[in-house]
Design brief:
By secondary structure, this protein is of the alpha/beta class. The chain folds into two domains: 2-142, Nucleotidyltransferase, domain 5 (2-Layer Sandwich); 192-380, 2-Layer Sandwich (Nucleotidyltransferase, domain 5), CATH 3.30.420.40. 40% of the residues lie in helices and 20% in strands. It has an eight-stranded mixed beta sheet, with helices on both faces. A six-stranded mixed beta sheet has the order 11-10-9-12-14-13, sandwiched between helices. The chain starts with a strand and ends with a helix. One of its GO terms (biological process) is acetate metabolic process.
Length: 396
């Protein structure tokens, strides 16, 4: 099948085109609405970059389709079997990929208060294609859907029950597409059915989350109602005492919006050592910078706490999976996370295997380890393509 995966951001548009789950082209358009927009095209035959003016998302989508046709990747847009859209927040409504209809669009729009920065842009991409290519089948794939299998004891906050009923206050989780993909790949690597495995998946990038997966189903995840909860991240604080928020407002005489910016954009690694670039932090820490050392140790400490908590929740763990830019490439982080976990959890890293710079799926545990340690590059676009293909077939 020919599936186009589309990720529409507030000022960007990214896509990959898949033929039978093989990526044949990708297009990225950035700085939409600015005088100088930046565009890249990659196909099996060419790689081009150019700076032009893309005035809005309508213009961006027309340009995207023109690029795919002019590069002879496809001859006509109508030959696509489906378009899969990444939609960040599906609330409690959406537990699987869903065919786009006017009613589905209304429901996604109703969830904008839960993802005000992301869902409007995701919707814009859906609506533009519906307007210009109404016969194309469109599928929404939700970041939150994978985590809707969490039991209520994990999904609910200990707040007045009416807040769930009146304002949908609960834990939703994010990075679901990535966690779902690497869980399936882990099962293949271990040569066992996914339904027989207990996994802890660690998506470690600028945003970071951990998920406890029991027999293929997410039963807990570190991000909550928003992506702010959980692990320490590049610029997000992760878990903090909630009373810090009113304390800062009253003590520093700052607004709630300023606190929101501080927690989401000025905290995490950046808040401790001034940068959220992990390579820079590791280099500085190795050169003796104390703030960088502290940032690294705090980052790893939070991950280790979640491994301990999810080990208790799962009862037994077959594998821990590292993915995301940091999880896949920062060998020091993997080593620090696993250090000293032999006696408690039977986790033993093979340091020589861990030093490999191969960019493929691989095991990095020692023969003595009771828990497999896997490095699996995530591929959210491929997972969206797969889910879209399944939904398209089901819609016929």
């Amino acid at each position: 099948m020919k599936i186009l995966v589309l990720n529409a951001g507030s000022s960007s548009l990214k896509c990959q085109l898949f033929f039978d789950e093989t990526s044949v082209a990708s297009v990225t358009i950035e700085r939409i609405g600015e005088a100088e927009s930046y565009m890249t095209l990659k196909t099996v035959r060419e790689h081009s970059e150019q700076t032009i003016t893309i005035k809005d998302h309508h213009h961006a989508i027309r340009t995207l389709f023109d690029l795919l046709q002019n590069s002879r990747t496809i001859s006509d847009i109508e030959e696509l079997d489906g378009i899969g859209h990444r939609v960040v927040h599906g609330g409690a409504y959406f537990t699987r990929p869903t065919k786009i209809t006017p009613e589905i669009i209304r429901r996604i729009r109703s969830l904008i208060p839960l993802a005000p920065l992301h869902n409007p842009a995701n919707l814009e991409g859906i609506e533009i294609i519906a307007e210009h290519y109404p016969t194309l089948t469109q599928i929404a794939v939700f970041d939150t859907a994978f985590h809707q299998t969490m039991p209520e004891i994990a999904a609910r906050y200990p707040l007045p029950y009416r807040l769930y009923e009146e304002a949908s206050v609960r834990r939703y989780g994010f990075h679901g597409t990535s966690h779902a993909y690497v869980a399936k790949e882990a099962a293949k690597l271990l040569k066992k059915p996914l339904g027989s495995l207990n996994l802890i998946t660690l998506h470690l990038g600028n945003g970071a989350s951990a998920t406890a997966i029991s027999k293929g189903r997410s039963i807990d995840t570190s991000m909550g109602m928003t992506p702010l909860e959980g692990l320490m991240m590049g610029t997000r604080s992760g878990d903090i005492d909630p009373a810090i928020i009113p304390y800062l407002i009253h003590t520093l005489d700052i607004s709630i919006d300023e606190v929101d910016t501080l927690l989401n954009k000025e905290s995490g690694l950046k808040g401790i050592c001034g940068t959220n670039e992990m390579r820079e932090i590791i280099t500085s820490a190795e050169s003796g910078d104390e703030k960088s050392r502290l940032a690294l140790e705090m980052y790893v400490y939070r991950i280790r706490k979640y491994i301990g908590a999810y080990s208790a929740v799962l009862g037994s763990v077959d594998a821990i999976v590292f993915t995301g830019g940091i999880g896949e490439h920062a060998m020091l982080i993997r080593e620090m996370v696993c250090e000293g976990l032999e006696n408690t959890f039977g986790i033993c890293l093979d340091k020589e295997k861990n030093l490999s710079v191969e960019n493929n799926e691989r095991a990095v545990h020692s023969t003595e380890s009771k828990v497999a340690l896997l490095v699996i590059p995530t591929n959210e676009e491929l997972e969206i393509a797969r889910q879209t293909e399944t939904a398209v077939k089901a819609s016929f």
